[in-house]
Design brief:
Length: about 140
């Protein structure tokens, strides 16, 4: 039951932070950002999709328009004290990493990658945090 509550809280925080970043036009809600670049917010056509998945203690939210990803956010909850960083995967290969953040047991870590770019149709995009369970994935 506690695991479901934690997962629900992580999803809620990821979505809230992700929405705030898009609405406010900022890229850095993360404690361990990849590259912080200002985001220009406009009315895209077609509307960006929000792909969301959770596994273990980790969740990800991907904003995309077709195969172009405009924002890729991830969040995790530390089961114990750990220094960790997010890894971003395309089809099983690490393509980016966030900075390191140290978390206490129960503390949440966030990372945000703004404008990662275009991916091939059908690409599987996943995130994982070193030393923390879970590797959520979405297919573009």
């Amino acid at each position: 039951m506690l695991h479901r509550i934690i997962r629900s809280a992580v999803v809620t925080v990821v979505l809230a932070a992700f929405s705030a970043a898009v609405v406010l036009g900022t890229a850095g809600f993360a404690s361990a950002g990849v590259t912080s670049v200002p985001v220009v917010v406009g009315v895209p056509s077609p509307s960006p999709l929000a792909l969301i998945d959770c596994a273990g203690n980790t969740c990800q939210a991907i904003a995309n328009s077709g195969t172009t990803v405009t924002n890729w956010a991830t969040s995790t909850t530390a089961p114990n004290s750990v220094c960790t960083y997010a890894e971003y995967f395309e089809n099983g290969t690490i393509i980016a990493e966030s900075g390191t953040t140290c978390l206490s047991a129960g503390q949440q870590g966030n990372a945000d990658w703004s404008n990662p770019g275009k991916f091939p149709a059908g690409a599987q995009l996943c995130t994982a945090w070193t030393g923390i369970a879970g590797k959520p994935c979405n297919t573009i």
